[in-house]
User: What shape does this take?
Amino acid sequence: MTQFTRAIVRPPAANFADGLTSVDLGKPDFAKALEQHARYCDALEQCGLTLTRLPADPQFPDSTFVEDTAILTPGAAILTRPGAASRAGEVAGVEPTLRQLFQRIHAIATPGTVDGGDICQIKKHFIIGVSERTNANGARQLADLLVQEGFTSAVVDIRGVSGILHLKSGSSYLGDNRVVLIDALADHPAFSGYAIVRIAPEENYAANFLRINDQLIVSAGHPKFESAVRGFGYPVIVLDMSEFQKMDGALSCLSLRF
Ligand code: GLY
Assistant: This one.
């Protein structure tokens, strides 16, 4: 399992509610979002990570979702080109920090688009979701860059899967060769070599969680999933993500971990 020591985070800006969303869960409460973000940062620190805290950026209402701006490997950062026009400028806000922290910087070039939320790492292998945000050209560029960095990859087209924005809205690597998947992805051949842990359909949002070293961070309100992962023996931190869920965001979206 990848061992993480650091993460980059950015709190939501006051205009967070102006960001993109495809769900109809109401407008997020900004004060509550800030509080939930603070608890999220506490949890990452509890898992042993040192945080680089970027300032809130009201130029980009979705900029708290820093995961979408880069793919990180131990030696290199790959700058993405987010697929939503309103988010394209977010990468420039993260790049100077990544240049300080990584020896090698690569970048996805036009016409490719990649959102970090479409990239699911399983040990030395990456599953790349082609979605409304990540296009086939971006997926090919990313696969080539990952080979240069010593990683393999496979592509999963999620454009026909309803209810998920990104690949990692419906899949996450739990560790110990177990992959957690929503039903719509459970039979995909890209995941055939793993032990599949299916999410109950009413708990699909729980498919996005974080494995940080030996610890799991899961979203509150998903008792079946929580009980399943506790049953596997993982220590679990549970966080309320309600305000981020309203903006199509989940646990992994709020940090870049390395
Ligand atoms: N609100 C997150 C996104 O749509 O990218």
About this structure: The domain at 6-257 is CATH 3.75.10.10 (L-arginine/glycine Amidinotransferase; Chain A). The first helix runs from residue 30 to 46. The longest strand covers residues 125-130. The CA atoms of residues 18 and 126 lie 32 Å apart.
